[in-house]
Amino acid sequence: MELTVTERAREVVRTFIEQSEGELRALRIVAHPGAGVGGGPRFELTLVPESDRTDDDVEVELEDFSVLIARDSAQRMEGATVDYVERANESGFEIRPPQRTPRVEGPPKGELAEQVQEVLDAQVNPAVAAHGGEINLVDVQGTEIFIQMGGGCQGCALSRMTLKQGVERMVRQAIPEVTAVHDVTDHTSGDNPFY
Known about the structure:
Elements: E1 4-5, H1 7-19, E2 26-32, E3 42-48, E4 57-61, E5 66-70, H2 71-77, E6 81-86, E7 91-96, H3 111-129, E8 133-141, E9 144-151, H4 159-174, E10 180-183
C-alpha cells in the first residue's frame, strides 16, 4: 500500500511514542465515510500498542513505528499523505487524498457538468469576480468535480477557504449528488497570484 507520512507527522508520532514510554508503538488510522467536512471521510488517528494489531489490518512499516489501517479504510487511504499542520487557529494531523489528475480533453460534458457550470456562472464567478478571480470547471469524474482557480484567486492565501466555504458549499447545495470538489490549481505560479 502506498502511504506518505511527512517528516513533521513522524516527529509528532515519535514524541507521543516516547511519552508513552514504549507502551504505544503503532499509529492506527480509521476512515469514517461521509462523516467529514463536505461529505468526505472523517479520519480518526490513535496511537495503539503492538498488541492492537488484527488480521484485518493493512500494515505500513516505517522506520520507527507502524501504521495500521483497517482493511475497509485502506482504499480511502491509498496514495494519501499524512501530515501534521499548525495554522493560526488549528493544529493536528491532516490526511490529504492523492492528487487526482483531471482529464484534459476539452470542456467537460454531460448533465452533471452542465449543472455545475450553471452554478459557477450564476453564483460562484459573480462572487469571486469582485476580487478579480474566476473559477473554471476542468473535469468531472463520476460525482467528483475538478476546478481551477484563475485571476486573483490563483495564489491567494484565502483560496482554500474560498474553495471549502464558497465554491464547494454553493455547488453541493445546488447539486447534492456532487461528492467532492478538487482544486487542481497550481497556486505557486501564474500571471496574477497575490502571494
